[in-house]
Specification:
- By secondary structure, the chain is of the alpha/beta class.
- It folds into 2 domains: 280 residues, FAD/NAD(P)-binding domain; 150 residues, Elongation Factor Tu (Ef-tu), domain 3 (Beta Barrel).
- It is 32% helix and 14% strand.
- It has a 6-stranded antiparallel beta sheet. Strands 6-2-1-7-16 form a 5-stranded parallel beta sheet, with helices on one face. Strands 3-5-4 form a 3-stranded antiparallel beta sheet.
- The two termini are 23 Å apart.
Length: 439
């Protein structure tokens, strides 16, 4: 094995990984297909190009993404430092001047004597297999090229390499009103693992009318065909007829409302989304509604009036692997320890989340080359909790962003949400500071 590490992809995760390796004085070969070839969403030749919003979300420590950024600052993240340096006014959020951000990241990476930038499409100009004699981090993002996607499929033995992300919203269990909700499976079969939300005709009619009139997100042209062929958005299904949902994901047959001892007019089902049972997925609620509209419309469902949404539904082009089967908590590929993955291809959702995965992969790839032990960050931290989430068994795995729901619960019950979040943040920072000497 040669004394350098390959990093494929110079997006947010790839640049952070390359920086973490280079700062430990290990040479990096950074492969980036731009400007030789651009994805359908990219147009700038710089590294770390931000395609969508310029917001890195909240900076508050009582927000999980704000806490994640603070953890990354403590661990000397290049990309968060650049984001801070190129920030623009955005209230409590960290937003950046996208052009200056990409310029400064590119300058920092290209000025490093330990990083060699190679403009070449892996999977086309050079085969992925040609690189795997060396430790390699694959950080090619949600728009991985078709050529490289094909090689990754072969590498992972075709395990669930998704080409679009049709994920339903996820809410916290503690925010569900169990005066209305009840456990049970259709016709009483199974282990009663679903949470059910019964609706009367009046409640359904109100929900239905708000749903079909809600504002939706405009998709890129290249996304529309893939998404609509693969999975029908809830609002589109609803517009096919008032009863379409009642014969589809909201069908009430096989259930009895404990309050009325009658079959509901419609029923929404929630499925457990994490091992701890603190998060639940809204079954069949893949949607293109804007996030604010999801909060407004879905809160009309009986039992969800005070629902805490830790992830909203999304439908967009997104390539990701079946990480719970394939990766460990260091983002290392279980079947070949030379390989790491990082970024949204692992199932972390969002800019800052991608940066965190690049950091963990970069640190651990370096340690493997140097014969040092793995660095697994505490699950009490958001960085560690994300790594644990994407590597834990999950039959219904889909991308996840930073949220307090994936952190271990506090030993004490705290009803006030902001106070509870502050306790979680304090615990995370303490756990990280205890671990930092090993990193």
């Amino acid at each position: 094995m040669k004394e350098y590490i390959n990093v494929i992809g110079a997006g947010l995760a790839g640049c952070e990984a390359a920086y973490q390796i280079a700062k430990r004085k290990i040479p990096v070969k950074l492969y980036e297909m731009k400007p030789v070839k651009f994805s359908p969403a990219h147009s700038n030749s710089n590294f770390a190009e931000i395609v969508c919003s310029n917001s890195f979300k909240s900076s508050s420590l009582t927000n999980a993404c704000g806490l994640l950024k603070e953890e990354l600052r403590i661990l000397d993240s290049l990309l968060i430092k650049v984001a801070d340096d190129t920030s623009v006014p955005a209230g409590q959020a960290l937003a950046v001047d996208r052009e200056k951000f990409a310029d400064k990241v590119t300058e920092a990476i290209k000025s490093s004597s330990y990083i060699e930038s190679i403009n070449m499409e892996v999977g086309s100009d050079i085969s992925l297999s040609d690189l795997l004699d060396n430790i390699t981090i694959i950080a090619t993002g949600p728009l991985t090229s078709d050529a490289l996607s094909g090689e990754i499929k072969s590498l992972t033995e075709n395990q669930n390499l998704a080409f679009y992300d049709a994920a339903a919203p996820i809410i916290t269990k503690e925010s569900i009103d169990f005066n209305i909700a009840f456990y049970g499976d259709r016709y009483g079969k199974g282990s009663s693992s679903y949470i059910n939300l019964p609706m009367s005709k009046e409640e359904y009619d109100l929900f239905y009318n708000e749903l079909i009139n809600a504002e939706i997100v405009t998709l890129h042209d290249f996304e529309k065909r893939e998404i609509f062929e693969g999975c029908m958005p809830l609002e589109i299904m609803a517009k096919r007829g008032e009863d379409t949902l009642r014969f589809g994901p909201l069908k009430p047959v096989g259930f009895t409302d404990p309050r009325t001892q009658k079959r509901p007019y419609a029923i929404v089902q929630l499925r457990q989304d994490n091992k701890e049972g603190t998060l639940y997925n809204m079954v069949g609620f893949q949607t293109n509604l804007k996030f604010g509209e999801q909060k407004r419309v879905f809160s009309l469902i009986p039992g969800l009036k005070n629902a805490e949404f830790i992830r909203y539904g999304v439908m967009h082009r997104n390539t990701y692997i079946n990480s719970p089967e394939l990766l460990d908590e260091t983002y290392n590929f279980k079947k070949c320890h030379n390989i790491y993955f990082a970024g949204q291809i692992t199932g972390v959702e969002g800019y800052v989340e991608s940066i965190s995965s690049g950091m963990v992969a970069g640190i651990n790839a370096t340690n493997r080359l140097l014969g040092k032990k793995d660095v697994i960050l505490p699950k009490e931290t958001v960085i560690g909790a994300l790594a644990a989430y994407i590597s834990s068994p999950n039959e219904h795995f889909s991308p996840m962003n930073a949220n307090f729901g994936i952190l271990p619960e506090l030993h004490e019950k705290i009803r006030d949400k902001q106070e509870r979040y502050k306790k979680l943040a304090d615990r995370a920072i303490d756990a990280l500071n205890e671990k930092i000497s090993e990193i």
